[in-house]
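Work Package 4 report. The design task specified in the project plan requires that, given a folded chain encoded as structure tokens, an amino acid be chosen for each position. We show below one input record used in the internal validation round.
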């Protein structure tokens, strides 16, 4: 990873955060998602296919990631960009990279939470300045506190630590350090990652599956991909799912209308 590549990835760590200059909709809810982050990192580091595979793992694992009341249990943007970038530096195949992605995602996510809490503390002083500006009806003071000061704190606490981490990863030479990591550790992290992905899928299903027939439809699609992936593509399964969904909801809607008419 070159310095320029590290700077670009670190920049997106900031842009994909809550309250970045591009806003929450573009930033946190788009650039901060693992699949989007993996595509961006893949473009920057020149390995989009492997990056997307790793991004899918993180996306499944963090499907249930929320920030209730502003409480940040895990910094998804930091974890995604640092995790995927670090894994791409250390490995060129999915079997090896999926172990490393959890190592670096854990490092990135933990540091991200620390930076998030620090930004909370520093913004207290800016809030006082903004409040004073509101009391004085001084929009310039409010702008300096909320926009200039807030974005400066956010940028420094996200871009700078991320850049240091990425440059440190790059400076290690990747494969030289990887030789010292025991196989049992990477295998254990791979298993852990699979469990996290399963947990994320389970959380998603708990919201989607309302009736037993819904679970049956899901299992049908799972079996198609698990046992017939050589003969059928994801797009084909999506088309089949759309047809089943259309037929199912047409029947259900017809039954509701019939019941309503009988009344």
């Amino acid at each position: 990873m070159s310095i320029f590549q590290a700077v670009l990835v670190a920049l997106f760590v900031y842009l994909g955060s809550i309250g970045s200059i591009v806003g929450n909709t573009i930033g946190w809810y788009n650039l901060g998602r693992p699949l989007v982050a993996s595509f961006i990192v893949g473009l920057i580091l020149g390995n989009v296919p492997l990056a997307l595979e790793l991004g899918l793992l993180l996306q499944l694992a963090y499907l249930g990631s929320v920030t209730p009341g502003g409480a940040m249990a895990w910094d998804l943007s930091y974890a995604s960009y640092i995790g995927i970038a670090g894994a791409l530096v250390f490995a060129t195949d999915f079997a090896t990279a999926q172990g490393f992605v959890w190592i670096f995602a854990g490092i990135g996510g933990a540091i991200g939470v620390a930076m998030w809490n620090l930004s909370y503390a520093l913004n207290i002083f800016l809030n006082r300045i903004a409040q004073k500006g509101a009391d004085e009806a001084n929009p310039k003071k409010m702008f300096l506190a909320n926009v200039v000061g807030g974005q400066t704190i956010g940028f420094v606490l996200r871009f700078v630590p991320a850049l240091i981490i990425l440059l440190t990863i790059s400076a290690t030479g990747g494969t030289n350090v990887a030789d010292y990591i025991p196989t049992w550790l990477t295998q254990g992290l791979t298993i852990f990652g699979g469990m996290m992905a399963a947990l994320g899928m389970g959380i998603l299903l708990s919201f989607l599956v309302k009736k037993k027939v819904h679970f049956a439809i899901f299992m049908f699609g799972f079996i198609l991909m698990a046992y017939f992936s050589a003969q059928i593509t994801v797009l084909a399964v999506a088309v089949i799912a759309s047809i089943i969904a259309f037929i199912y909801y047409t029947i259900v809607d017809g039954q509701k209308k019939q019941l309503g008419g009988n009344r």
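The CA atoms of residues 62 and 200 lie 6 Å apart. Validation will be extended to a larger panel in the next phase.
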